[in-house]
Amino acid sequence: EIVLTQSPGTLSLSPGERATLSCRASQSVASSFLAWYQQKPGQAPSLLLYGTSRRAAGIPDRFSGSGSGTDFTLTISRLEPEDFAVYFCQQYGSSPLFSFGPGTKVEIK
Amino acid sequence: QVQLQESGPGLVKPSQTLSLTCTVSGVSITNGDYYWSWIRQHPGKGLEWIGFIYYTDTTHYNPSLKSRVSISLDASRNHFFLNLSSVTAADTAVYYCARQDGFTFYSDFWGQGTLVTVSS
What we know:
Chain A contains no helices and ten strands. Chain A has strands spanning 4-7, 10-13, 19-29, 34-39, 46-50, 54-55, 63-76, 86-92, 98-100, 104-108. The radius of gyration of chain B is 13 Å and the shape is globular. The termini of chain B are far apart. Chains A and B meet through strand 5, strand 8 and strand 9 of A and strand 5 and strand 10 of B.
């Protein structure tokens, strides 16, 4: 069973700062099958990135993704007020077919 | 515009079956480019994939829930369904339906979610 670990659990930053979020897998994940989601309180998750680095429709270019194998990163170059939220990574391919990381909360410092 | 909407009872008694419907609009659930998923989120916790269905009625379930879960669809109504049997308090969660890309399996459209509480 593949397990995704995200770090840090909480990231306290100010608007305008750079955020770097990590997602680590217990086994190798194909780059095509790693996605990131953003979730704001009381809302459903929304797709940010897929295929490790491809931005979903309407996602600004301050969001970027990188990584391969077992280590993946979501970077927000300059935090905007609307970016303070919880971020989840998700993999497809290993039992269970889909799994999510526990999330990283990006909060205002 | 693609939209998904969950519906069903917000309260289910322990040992009973949780039944939810996802109404899809803006795309046909018989479109072979997509799978149709159920995902849940326990209060204040992370996301758990429950399972998905393809328009051919092919299903895949999370092994941790497989013995209790069933997903089906009604193409004529553009709906798909979740049944989760023998529920306990541990099944209390927000349940989401979502569209899953058939090639890279990301979920690009989600319902707003529905809270189901298991309690007597």
